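_Full entry_
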Amino acid sequence: MTASTLLALLCWLLLSLASIVVWLPPRPRQARPLFARTTALIAVIVVLVVATTAIALLGRWGNGTEGVWSWLTVGVSCLAAVLTGGAFTTSVLGLADAASRPTPQRVQRNVLRGGTWIGALERVGIVASLLAGWPDGIAVILAVKGLARYPELKTFQSTGAAERFIIGTFASIGWAAACAGVALVVWR
């Protein structure tokens, strides 16, 4: 393993750990201007995309990983999918909420229970299936998730939960696939 490959993995690990700040803290209910909130969400998305692209480019310059270092690459990619994917998906959902127009008929949005854990497991499963060379695993993961959530989504038809489910799932899957792609670039 070359120094650039090791540096790429370390940067990816640091980016993942820094993403905890965006993803996991409790959100205080303070009124912030919509413009400031939207700008912050866009900034998080841009930083994550640019940093992940830079990590992929840095890893590309290296010779790849072998042996135990390959397992480290897989571990870091799964960690990155969970942590940076959580921050990315949360930011995308925040932008979707900011873009929706409030209406008098709109009721309080219901957040589907376990969404954070389901999303994290979904991203790990997608990274694992792509790195294992079994892209059909994505269909299995989506089928299980969709069938498991169907009763709840049917119950909350007028709350926007289904739209948030679709947006969150697409953002989560896209980010997990990107993390698997970066891992393949570093691993090669």
